[in-house]
């Protein structure tokens, strides 16, 4: 299979490595707006070739992967679909789905598009962040799969089965709600935690000599790029606000229990929180 | 060296394994309130023997380690100090220090005590959670070290150097402020995040099929035991409230920027949060 990947960052680059490692791509063409990233993607052998003309890059591929930030996704996907022929398949790998699905809902080539979200990532970005095993054993969500042509869907299912990933089918609205809970809120919390400690650091230079595993684990996501995350928060704004309000409510409740020294209440809340073990054993 | 460890949970048990692995303890006696944990500590060979009489356990040891939850720490440490002779050394391994240091400030054997906080842990508890390499390469804080006898301090320094750990010296007040930032607040945030998603789970059964690395990383600490953490929050209440209020302020600010669609402001805040890279590269 010949593959064209538009956007050679963490996700696009990792997919390139995975496809090659599993013998799923014979030739990979990359499209990348940043000249520095394009050059680096060649050096890292993520792609065989860089193509600057989008239509030319699309015409050469059996599979076209759109792996740009979510704000660019809604403008890049329609012209890609304009250019595809009946045998070609297009996927995105974006973190929000409703806006993107709406942008192409009436497109005459809608059937050639399969909306895909591989639930994997790191706090790093750009071609240097690409990792061959990033997707292995993780879940990939296929959204509104009934709107894709059966043959296109089958090709995409075979591909992600082979990585191997676990396939999950959701409609776009459910996808965006669920990712607000399991991904987007964690990032907001982590950004706020980093801002909290950085605020204190102004006064206390040596405070972070103590940074240990627990802190690193909760604040790791705060290294993530705004170019990736602001468009995600923008496209999933109402769900993120909904979850964030619940989170603020829970934090405020814990704060109030501690302020009034209700240690029985605090113990009960932590026991309740411990039930997360049934979700993440 | 003969060692007595009072409290055979995650920290006491891990220290037993580390001391033995590095040939630092010839014989380890354990004191443990829970009969089940005492039995398990023997099965796991964390200790050679369980002693139920505290004074007898103390009298046999060159080094006595008090590794009980912080609420028990302030009641257990004074009678331990009552029982020690001039050649013996006592350490705690607790996560808060000011209340404990105050509890023994006027004790006639204060000099035999060295206040120690190894900055390492996991979300698990009990003897089964003990890990031999838990402390390796981590930081250990020695608090108010000038209040310990020189020979006692020297023995403790040699011991933690051998594990090996990086030694840091702080007074009790600075320790408690700094741990509020780098450890205690991460736990509160994680508990609140777990409560947030568990609240939503009542409505949405399948939401957590999607749980991925980022979520797991931020919510992992929410598995931690209230028996460990409520006493820590209690003893460090004012510092924790101070940090928590700053964190609530930062979260509310991010929420307001998203609510009013100020994406430039949101980008600036995330760029600011990214500076956490200079603390955790």
From TrEMBL, chains A, B:
Q: Which residues form the Prephenate/arogenate dehydrogenase domain?
A: 1-281
Give the PROSITE patterns listed for this entry. PDH_ADH
Q: Which UniProt keywords apply?
A: Oxidoreductase
Q: Look up keyword Nucleus and say if it applies.
A: no
Q: Name one GO molecular function term.
A: prephenate dehydrogenase (NADP+) activity
Give me any GO biological process, just one.
tyrosine biosynthetic process
Q: Which InterPro entries match?
A: 6-PGluconate_DH-like_C_sf, NAD(P)-bd_dom_sf, PDH_C, PDH_N, Preph/Arog_dehydrog, Prephen_DH
Q: Which PANTHER family match?
A: PREPHENATE DEHYDROGENASE (PTHR21363), PREPHENATE DEHYDROGENASE [NADP(+)] (PTHR21363:SF0)
Please report the name of this protein according to its UniProt entry: Prephenate dehydrogenase
Q: Which organism is it from?
A: Hymenobacter arizonensis
């Amino acid at each position: 299979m010949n593959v064209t990947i538009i956007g050679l960052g963490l996700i696009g680059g990792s997919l390139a490595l995975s496809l090659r490692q599993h013998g799923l791509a014979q030739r990979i063409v990359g499209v990348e707006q940043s000249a520095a990233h394009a050059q680096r993607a060649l050096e890292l052998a993520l792609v065989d070739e860089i193509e600057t003309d989008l239509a030319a890059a699309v015409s050469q591929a059996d599979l076209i992967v759109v792996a740009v930030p979510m704000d660019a996704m809604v403008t890049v996907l329609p012209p890609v679909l304009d250019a595809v022929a009946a045998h070609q398949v297009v996927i995105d790998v974006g973190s929000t789905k409703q806006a993107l699905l709406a942008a192409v809902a009436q497109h005459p080539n809608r059937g050639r598009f399969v909306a895909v979200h591989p639930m994997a990532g790191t706090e790093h970005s750009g071609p240097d962040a690409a990792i061959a095993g990033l997707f292995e054993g993780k879940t990939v969500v296929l959204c509104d799969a009934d709107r894709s042509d059966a043959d296109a869907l089958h090709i995409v299912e075979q591909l992600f089965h082979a990585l191997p990933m676990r396939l999950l089918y959701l409609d776009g609205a459910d996808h965006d709600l669920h990712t607000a809970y399991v991904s987007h809120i964690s990032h907001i919390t982590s950004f706020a935690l980093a801002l909290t400690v950085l605020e204190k650091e102004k006064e206390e230079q040596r405070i972070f000599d103590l940074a240990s595993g627990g802190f690193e684990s909760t604040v790791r996501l705060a290294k993530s790029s705004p170019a990736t995350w602001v468009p995600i928060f923008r496209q999933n704004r109402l769900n993120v606000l909904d979850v964030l309000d619940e989170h603020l409510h829970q934090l405020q409740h814990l704060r109030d229990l501690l302020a009034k020294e209700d240690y029985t209440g605090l113990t009960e809340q932590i026991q309740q929180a411990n039930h997360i073990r049934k979700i993440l054993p």
